[in-house]
Amino acid sequence: MAYLSDIEIAQQAEMQPITQIAQKAGIDEKYLEQYGKYKAKIDLALAKETDRKDGKLVLVTAITPTPAGEGKTTTTIGLADGMNRIGEKVCVALREPSLGPVFGVKGGAAGGGYAQVVPMEDINLHFTGDFHAIGAANNLLAAMLDNHIHQGNALGIDVRRISWKRCVDMNDRQLRFVTDGLGGRVNGVPREDGFDITVASEIMAVLCLSSSITDLKERLSKIIVGYTFNDEPVTAGQLNAAGAMTALLKDALKPNLVQTLEGTPALVHGGPFANIAHGCNSVTATKMAMKLADYAITEAGFGADLGAEKFLDIKCRMVGLTPSAVVIVATVRALKMHGGLDKKALNEENLGALERGIPNLLRHVSNIKNVYKLPCVVAVNRFPTDTDNEIEFIIEKCRELGVNVVLSTVWADGGKGGEELAREVVRLCNEEKGDFTFSYTYDCSIEEKIEAVVKKVYGGDGIIITPAAKKQIDKLTELGFDKCPVCIAKTQYSFSDDPTKLGAPEGFKVTVRNVKVSAGAGFIVVLTGDIMTMPGLPKSPAAERIDVDENGKITGLF
User: I want to staple 501 with a disulfide (CB 3.0 to 4.6 A). Which of 191, 432, 486, 505 is the partner?
Assistant: First the structure.
């Protein structure tokens, strides 16, 4: 049987005009700024001017990622469509894809199969220009910083201690380390520089955590770009850049409205890295979704130890959100990989590999239930090769923790395949009361916060702090940043900081190598390994397979 590709499915869909989707969501046309027929921005005034009570917030997260794939975004969209089918008023809130991975490894990133957001091509390519605005604001600050130094350096900035990089929304390893300002005195001051991908820019994190234009401007002004010869931090505010940066970002701050294949309203907005930033869509989109619907379904990047931890400990804490339920996505295939099975052997029943791999799922479930004290359900994305014995094994193991397992077939069946999951989520939201708790308190020291996450969430024995990182922690504490939450950057492939340790490793310590502050975003970034902020293209990038015909029809985006 020949399956349609994701893009073919999306292109066959009959989309409704965005005005109809807005009407379904209860958005008055005066709040709508249309970008063509099928996408629009929503004025931030809507959230202030509506008297509608906030709906319930549902977080979709997953087990530790593997090459076998888990289908978190697909499940998020399918769950929303399933809720729509059972008569609930629902809105989905997702991140925007970055161009770099679209042309690199992933191809498109708007869900998959019959659980997608559309127009898929637009969402993956340029969309409403938000990322371009973020890149422009980032690079304006870089230009103003170098211009300040060129024009006499009144602030006494040490060019060897500049931390602000330029950015571009493309995977381009050639730009990771550059030397610029060459060519004589009129062409700037020579220095070592570099580029990050736009989604790794602190401005992306700032935009996604800002609740208003005023808040955005204040956060931008606090961004630290480097240090003076006297070891004092230099901010974007001191360079008088915050006003102009905000002007570039004022429209990008507004959430984008699109639709699922089944016409469910969807807000797709923002896309911070899930390692060096908090990895979830914008505060404005999440809050807007809660205002528009009885249930707002959102997701966080990577496994629950990274995305969900940051969603709960950073985003929810900063803006006072409390999720009503959490969905943890898993596949039999991925759990067998955690059990040491080769990717080529995943189609055969193997209860031994499943038994070795399932502790990964159970630790994530236990964290949500016992560390954060939230109701949760496991959603198993069923593949045709999964056997009844394997499914029953997962159900039994989760039942021992007091958590239900629901099978999901949203990739193949759309909302219909998510109805059972939708009913369980509605039940959790209305019948099970959580007692939402963070994994650490604000008044802990920086070291105590890191150790709390490593021990409580990762299941490790503790932390090792390098002398360089200890010096950085002492400096940040002296500057008063010790009251910020921590954003731990580590490999997404393991609970530990070693990507080869699959399943649920024990007896490990996490090494803290580098600690820096994202003062605008309001968190401390803790680097535990080599975290790449500018990815490269693979040997055979997706870009080689993407094309467009004379009628403008795009192919190859998945």
Answer: 505
CA–CA dist 209, 203 (Å, integer): 10
- Beta-bridge partners for 178: 193
Helix, strand, coil % (nearest 5) of the chain?
A: 40, 20, 40
Instruction: Name the DSSP letter for residue 458.
Output: I
pLDDT of residue 107: 62
Residue 72 bears catalytic tag:
yes
Catalytic option among 274, 277, 289, 325: 274
The residue among 492, 304, 281, 278 whose CA lies nearest residue 403 is 304
CA–CA distance, 489 with 486 (Å, rounded to integer): 9
Helix axis angle, 72-85 relative to 419-431, nearest 10°?
Answer: 80
Per DSSP, helices labelled H in 26-129 are 45-49, 72-85, 99-103, 120-124
Cα angle at 527 between 525 and 529, to 5 degrees? 160
* Annotated active-site residue in 72, 166, 217, 310: 72
pLDDT value of residue 1:
46
**How far is 342 from 336, CA to CA, in rounded Å?**
8
Give every CB contact of residue 548 below 8 A, 6+ residues apart in sequence. Answer: 554, 555
What are the tens digits of pLDDT across the range 7-41? 888 888 899 999 999 999 999 999 999 999 999 99
Q: Which of 85, 89, 106, 501 is catalytic?
A: 106
In angstroms, rounded to a whole number, what is the distance separating the alpha carbons of residues 322 and 551? 47
- Count of CB atoms situated within 10 Å of the CB of 228: 15
Q: Give just the sign of the alpha carbon dihedral 330, 332, 338, 339.
A: positive
Please state the pTM of the whole predicted model: 0.95
* Residue 106 annotated in active site: yes
Q: Which residue of the set 103, 273, 411, 495 is catalytic?
A: 411
- Please identify which of the residues 103, 195, 273, 302 carries the catalytic annotation: 302
Residue 512: per-residue pLDDT: 96
pLDDT single digits (tens) 264-273: 999 999 999 8
214, exposed or middle or buried, with CB in 10 Å at 0-12, 13-18, 19+? exposed
Q: Active-site residue 164, yes or no?
A: no
Residue 518 · residue 202 · CB < 8 Å: yes
CA angle at 92 for the pair 88 and 95, rounded to the nearest 5°? 170
